[in-house]
């Protein structure tokens, strides 16, 4: 039963995010707003309820299944992807490199700050 409650909480926050995004005409996707609201609620609560923790762990355990629809969509639209293959590849490689560089810089600064604090 705790898993049903956890899933209801997750879907409730997603619904709340969708309502806010559409009602206020926000340029942010509803699920992102819902996740931010959930994070705020968990920070105020100070802990993660058992049902929500178990539900999240279950979803993460089967995360790869959630990529199946995206893979099928890529196969269905393969001709569109082939038409813009080079711009897509260049964008993917560049964004990955930028993400790695920013992550390395942040980790470097955080580890330096942590060493100074000790």
Protein model, in words:
InterPro entries: LrgA/CidA (IPR005538). The chain is built from 6 helices and no strands. The longest helix is centred in the last third of the chain and has 33 residues, at 85-117. Helix 1 packs across helix 3. The protein is extended and about 50 Å long. It is an all-alpha fold and 118 residues long.
Q: Count the E strands.
A: 0
Q: Could you say which structural class the secondary elements and strand pairing correspond to? A: mainly alpha
Major beta sheet summary: none
What is the beta-strand fraction? under 5%
Give the ordered list of helices and strands: HHHHHH
Averaged pLDDT:
90
CA-CA gap between termini: 45 Å
Shape: extended
Number of helices: 6
Rg estimate, integer Å = 20 Å
Write the layout of secondary structure elements.
Blueprint: H1 2-23, H2 30-45, H3 50-61, H4 68-76, H5 78-83, H6 85-117
Organism: Bisbaumannia pacifica
Keywords: Cell membrane, Membrane, Transmembrane, Transmembrane helix
Subcellular location: Cell membrane
Put the structure in a nutshell.
By secondary structure, this protein is mainly α. Helices cover 83% and strands 0% of the residues.
Overview features:
mainly alpha, single chain, 118 residues, extended
């Amino acid at each position: 039963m705790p898993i049903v409650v956890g899933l209801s909480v997750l879907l409730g926050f997603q619904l709340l995010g969708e309502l806010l995004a559409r009602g206020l005409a926000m340029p942010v996707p509803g699920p992102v707003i819902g996740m931010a609201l959930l994070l705020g609620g968990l920070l105020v609560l100070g802990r993660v309820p058992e049902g929500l923790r178990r539900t999240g762990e279950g979803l993460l355990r089967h995360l790869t299944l959630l990529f199946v629809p995206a893979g099928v969509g890529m196969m269905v639209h393969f001709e569109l992807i082939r038409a813009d293959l080079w711009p897509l590849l260049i964008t993917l490689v560049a964004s990955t490199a930028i993400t790695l560089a920013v992550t390395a810089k942040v980790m470097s600064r955080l580890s330096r700050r942590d060493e100074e604090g000790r």
